[in-house]
């Protein structure tokens, strides 16, 4: 009996610590392209965006040296800290080539309406997109929110991180990283 129990325990798969942390797209790779309409065209000055035309080898706008792509949800507490900072820095560092995109992941039409209301409340001027079926979220492996990618002028991911904490100084670390790549 004891042997049977011990043998059964040996057959149970174990998970390591690495499994607790979501796997992100690898630094050095090219992120999946997308074409999306903005939810705030008046504020952002952009009706729709095509990632490959925004940054990378086929980019039409060579003034963008670094693009932040943040996956966001209205219910995500950490997102409420990260996204306004990205918006602020995109305004402050625009002349140095920094821009940001926010991809809202709230599901369905209700989620889209909540997202529109929230971005108006925050007064965001960076382009905000809606990924209501979470297709892009899955392609970018954004299992935890917020998930942030920084893409350089060549079109390669130079930084990938999920989670954001003001208490841990993530704002200062992120700003230092952004300045490093500008």
CATH-scheme architecture: 3-Layer(aba) Sandwich
Counted by DSSP, the helix tally is 7
| Rg (CA only) | 19 Å
Q: Name the CATH superfamily classification.
A: Glutaredoxin
Shape by Cα distribution: globular
Topology as a string of helices (H) and strands (E): HEHEHEHEHEHEEH
N-to-C terminal Cα separation, in Å? 65 Å
Unreliable sequence segments: 2-19
For the biggest sheet, the summary is: 5 strands, mixed
How would you characterize this protein structure?
The protein is an alpha/beta fold. The protein has one domain (23-181): Glutaredoxin (3-Layer(aba) Sandwich), CATH 3.40.30.10. The chain contains seven helices and seven strands. The radius of gyration is 19 Å and the shape is globular. The chain starts with a helix and ends with a helix. The model is unreliable at 2-19 (pLDDT under 50).
Layout of SSEs?
Layout: H1 2-11, E1 35-37, H2 41-44, E2 48-50, H3 51-54, E3 66-72, H4 77-92, E4 98-104, H5 108-122, E5 128-130, H6 135-139, E6 147-152, E7 157-162, H7 170-181
Parallel strand pairs: 3-4, 4-5
Antiparallel strand pairs: 1-2, 3-6, 6-7
Keywords:
two-stranded antiparallel ribbon; alpha/beta; 182 residues; 7 helices; disordered N terminus; 19% strand; 7 strands; single chain
């Amino acid at each position: 009996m004891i042997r049977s129990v011990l043998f059964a325990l040996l057959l149970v798969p174990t998970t390591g610590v690495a499994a607790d942390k979501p796997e992100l797209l690898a630094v050095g790779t090219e992120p999946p392209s997308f074409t999306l309409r903005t939810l705030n065209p008046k504020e952002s000055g952009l009706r729709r965006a095509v990632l490959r035309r925004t940054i990378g080898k086929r980019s039409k706008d060579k003034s963008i040296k670094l693009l932040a792509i943040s996956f966001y949800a209205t219910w995500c507490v950490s997102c409420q800290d990260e996204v306004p900072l990205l918006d602020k820095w995109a305004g402050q560092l625009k002349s140095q080539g920094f821009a940001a995109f926010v991809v809202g992941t709230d599901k369905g039409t209700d989620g889209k309406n909540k997202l529109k209301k929230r971005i108006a409340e925050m007064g965001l001027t960076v382009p905000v997109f809606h990924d209501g079926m979470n297709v892009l979220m899955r392609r970018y492996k954004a299992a935890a929110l917020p998930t942030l990618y920084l893409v350089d002028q060549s079109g390669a991911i130079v930084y990938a991180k999920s989670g954001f904490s003001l208490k841990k100084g993530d704002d200062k670390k992120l700003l230092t990283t952004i300045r490093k790549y500008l």
